[in-house]
Write a structure and sequence with these properties.
The protein is of the alpha/beta class and 380 residues long. Helices cover 41% and strands 12% of the residues. The structure holds pyridoxal-5'-phosphate (PLP). Pyridoxal-5'-phosphate binds next to helix 3.
């Protein structure tokens, strides 16, 4: 099997799995319990949170652990006070941002044809009601990296202007960094974000574990009510093994950021040289583990099934949209035609791959594409 869909899911790292195991059985205690072994679990949990937080230049107390990035994104939107028409979000955001932003009467911000935010559109849409701007650090379908520091500058200028005019509305920047931690050295202060979403499932940690970084001056409303865990924002017994695994995965990701970047850049080059008859969709400002190819005139859904038969696993876009048969809103937002969208494949490289696999994948994709082209030609 040649797995080229690491943006959808990553296998749990061996070190992460080993670190998690004792917390399922030997040290299963509820961190809120009063006896000593439970207190030790509570302190291990806090240490794991600190490891995750330090990886983005934050403190353990800045993180709210959630059951994945969807929850973290939804929690971020509880920062809004007024609700109506106070949110801006990028047209290419993941559904876990789009759907909650729509609930809040949010307005979409356009992207340019390369997938980068249209800063002039953003500027024109920031009025005095806007409280929250949500822009992912790396898009999950294109791997495009957004210029968040520029957005943060614009927000800073807007805040100064609001202050001068006596406008008291808050203005916060949220970013979904689910796809970013493997290849980027993230610092919340450098990015200038107030809220940042992390996702263990995309960094070789367990599924169903995520975190929201919350700057100390941001007030959120609870996502769940109960025992008051996670500063009262996400009540429920802590997922200790999950967070321990998340921390081990983050530590590993952090130590290998530069090596990964080099390795994937090399493999991307090989693929782009050896593949034939495609158009590269995500040309610039893209993480090297993301390659989006368009085979215009072919049906990418068919290509996926045919490739699976040959042991190569790729996708047409976000796994959740694909399973519902929905056309990618991301590819639409960058201006692709319906036939270009229908012919687009996403390859996302990762730890399970080897250079040999990359050569094999290029050869198999070329063969499958060629035979599909001949079939289409025969059938007119
Ligand atoms: N945000 C981005 C950018 C993603 O890629 C994903 C997962 O595909 C999510 C959010 C949702 O993550 P989860 O399903 O773990 O809640």
């Amino acid at each position: 099997m040649i797995y080229l869909d690491h943006a959808a899911a990553t296998p749990v790292l061996k070190e992460a799995l080993e670190a998690m195991m004792p917390y399922f059985s030997d040290v299963f205690f509820n961190p809120s319990a009063a006896y000593l072994p439970a207190k030790k679990v509570a302190s291990d949990y806090e240490a794991a949170k600190a490891t995750i937080a330090h990886a983005i230049g934050a403190k353990a107390s800045d993180l709210v652990i959630t059951a994945g990035a969807t929850e973290a994104n939804n929690l971020a939107f509880t920062a809004i006070q007024a609700n109506a028409e106070s949110v801006l979000y990028l047209a290419t955001e993941h559904d876990s941002v789009r759907r909650i932003a729509e609930q809040c009467g949010g307005t979409e911000v356009k992207v340019l044809s390369n997938g980068i935010i249209d800063l002039s559109d953003l500027k024109s849409k920031i009025n005095d009601q806007i409280e929250l701007i949500s822009i992912s650090l790396v898009n999950n379908e294109l791997g495009v990296l957004q210029p968040l520091a520029e957005v943060a500058n614009l927000i800073r200028e807007t805040k100064i202007d609001r202050m001068k005019r006596g406008v008291k509305t808050q203005l916060l920047l949220h970013s979904d960094a689910s796809q970013a931690l493997n290849l980027l050295d993230i610092s919340v202060s450098r990015l200038g974000v107030d809220l940042l979403t992390l996702n263990a499932a995309k960094v070789y940690g367990p599924k169903g574990v995520g975190a929201l970084y919350v700057s100390h001056d941001v007030r959120l409303k609870p996502l769940t009510y109960g025992g008051g865990q996670e500063n009262g924002l996400r009540s429920g017994t802590e997922n200790v093994p999950g967070v321990i695994g998340f921390a081990a995965a983050v530590k590993h990701a952090k130590e290998h950021v530069n090596g990964n970047r080099k390795k994937y850049a090399g493999w991307k080059k090989i693929l782009l040289q050896e593949l034939k008859d495609y158009e590269l969709i995500n040309k610039k400002h893209t993480l090297d583990n993301f390659i989006v190819l368009c085979y215009n005139g072919l049906d990418a859904e068919r290509l996926i099934f045919l490739l699976e038969d040959r042991g190569v696993y790729v996708s047409t876009g976000a796994a959740c949209a694909t399973s519902k048969g929905v056309r990618s809103h991301v590819l639409k937002a960058i201006g692709l035609s319906d036939s270009e969208i229908a012919g687009s494949l996403r390859i996302s490289l990762g730890r399970t791959n080897t250079e040999e696999q990359i050569h094999d994948a290029a050869r198999i994709i070329n063969e499958v594409v060629q035979s599909e082209k001949e079939r289409v030609k025969r059938n007119g």
